[in-house]
Structure formats: C-alpha cells, structure tokens
Amino acid sequence: MTIGADLAPFRADVIARAAHADLIVYPELHLFGSEIWPDEQRNVELRRSAVPLDGQLVAELGDIAREAGAWLIPGSICERGPLGELFNTALVFSPAGELVAHYRKVFPWRPFEPYDAGDRFVVFDIPGVGRLGISICYDAWFPEVARHLAWMGAEAVINIVKTTTPDRSQELVLAQANSIVNQTFTVSVNCAGPIGRGQSLIVDPEGKVLAESAGVDPVELISTLDLSHVTKVHLEGTAGSNRMWSQFVSTDSPLALPMYAGRIDPDTWHPSTTAAHHPSTMS
C-alpha cells in the first residue's frame, strides 16, 4: 500500500480475517509503501510520511480494530516523535479500538535505516489469554530483546519483519533459537514479494515450527496458540530436560555481566507471572 493511500482495502482485509482470528498481525511498515527507492530518497520519503501517535492515521487504525472486534497489530508506522524524532513504531489495538501498547524499534538496521532508537521493551496483556511482547525485524538478531521480553513475562514474542535481503534464512533460525533459549512462542511475520522474502513462521516454546509460509507469495498464516504450553515448559523443561528459568538457587552469588555494567541476580532471574491462559487464534 502506498503511503497516504485510502485505508478502505486494509479495513476490508482486517474485517475479513477477524472472522476467524482473535489477533491479526501485519508485517513491519505494512502501510508505509512498497516502492523501491535509492537509500537517500527512501529516507526522505520515510521522514515525510511520519505521523504522530495522536494523529489521524492511528485514530483510524483504532477504528478498524473496533469495527473488526479483534486485537490488531497493523505492522509498524513511521512515527514522528514529540521532539521531532523518527521512530519505527509497532502499534497494538484492542477490540475496543484502544491503543494499548506501542513499541519503538530498539535496534534500527544501521547504517541503512534512518530511525532513532527506542529506549524500552514492551509487553501487553490479552485478558484471559496471556502476555505478549513486541519486537521489530532486526531486534531478533539481538538476544537481549527476546530475553528481556521473556523476563517481563511474555509468553509469545511477535516479531514483525520487512526483510528484503538474503538473510531471511538466518532469521528463520533465530526465530527458533529465540524460542528455545527463552521458552516462548515466536511469531515472525515478514512481508511478501515482490519486495519481501516472505517465509513467515510460528514457533512453539521448544522450537517446533507450528506453521510457516514456504515462498514469497502473499499468504494467510493461521495458528491457535495455547500459551499454557509456556508454563508447562517452564515446569517440565524443554524436551522434558532443560529448565533455564530455574537455573539459579538462593545460595548462588550474583553473576557480573561486564558488557552491560550489570549482573544476573538469582533473586530476580525468574520471569514475571501472567494471567490464566486460554488458546488464542492468530492470523
């Protein structure tokens, strides 16, 4: 969809998918153009298209979520920050149309992307289902992101992607690895061709691929996630063996992390607790 285009086709698509999904997820920058520009022109166009969180586009996306009656992640937007910053920002709307969370990409793909970096990790709760975390594309290459989201209680990490480069094959490995080492679901949603490489996938907390798209053609990927699987894996271990979140005991000393000028403290290692779980269908 071209920047500034009529949202009617997007609205119709969301409403159609809401007939069989509780949460609908679109790729990174889904509404912000599919044109192929030289780097300098692309950056100019992205800055020109940036909108504030309290602007008309975000309000209209909330209206679409409310009309569909579903949770909606419409990809990310080019956000014009309060001080003139340019953020790559993922949005989360409730079925009531409320903007319940927004996440600014912490690791822009430098030197190619012009965005300012976000400064915090973001999770949100779907009542009666569980807690989800948000990451954007290149964030998946930094283990700190998925680890922190899991520590904050995320049972599924939604990674929205706009990968147009040959490294999508490595990202598929990262999706499984991030799920395994953090015991979370990973939902990696990439844009299709002709711009993107496609190959979206959904991974369970033990690294098993539950659903995937094989090629670059547009496809609807649907899966029902039972987030109680995360609790089960925490208790019984990955493959019935490994319980990383129960690694430390009270007599262990804190472990220094010189790279971060911080430490792992056994008293604070455990993930946050979340609400009761019920299966949720994602599209």
Topology:
Elements: H1 8-17, E1 23-25, H2 39-49, H3 56-68, E2 71-73, E3 76-80, E4 86-93, E5 99-104, E6 123-126, E7 130-136, H4 143-151, E8 156-161, H5 168-182, E9 185-190, E10 201-203, E11 209-212, E12 223-225, H6 228-236, E13 255-257, E14 262-264, E15 280-282
Parallel strand pairs: 1-2, 7-8, 8-9
Antiparallel strand pairs: 3-4, 4-5, 6-7, 9-10, 10-11, 12-15, 13-14
Structure description:
The chain is an alpha+beta fold and 283 residues long. The chain is built from 6 helices and 15 strands. It has a 6-stranded mixed β-sheet, covered by helices on one side. A 3-stranded antiparallel β-sheet has the order 3-4-5. A two-stranded parallel ribbon has the order 1-2. A hairpin with a 5-residue loop joins strand 3 and strand 4. It is globular.
